[in-house]
Amino acid sequence: MDLLKCSVFFLVFTLAGAGVMAGPRFQCSLTPISGTAWIPRDVSFHFSDDFKTAEISDLAFGVPVMARVERHSEISLALNWALPRLAVAGHAGQPGPRFRAVLNTSNLKISIQAVRKDKDGVLPRGSGQCQVDQGLSLLAHSEG
User: Fold this and answer.
1) Range list of β-strands (E), 8-61
2) 24, 132 Cβ separation under 8 angstroms
3) Is the full-model pTM beyond 0.90?
């Protein structure tokens, strides 16, 4: 497949997937709490309408991935995702890092934990603040 056909294929694939993520988008800034490896500084969560999945975009790795979303409490959502091996090519032979996060939809705070230990054997954790990008009300979606 030549470069032009490949580019068109990826553009169509990206635009087709974009319609699925019709829920709100959150932009979050994170700060490491323990361990510094694998905690992204800026991450974006774009939720599906039913809040069962979200597309995660991390500026550091640059590879959008899908996350599984579950209701953690009345005001919080739990997200689980993994980065593909391609995104962390410098760590050949190891599985891609996995993440868990809890987003509090009331105060827009987030906590995150990398499931892969850093070089010091510490599970990296971080926390941060998010902003809602889309004008849709999160509460209107989550109560329905």
Assistant:
1) 25-34, 42-47, 53-58
2) yes
3) no
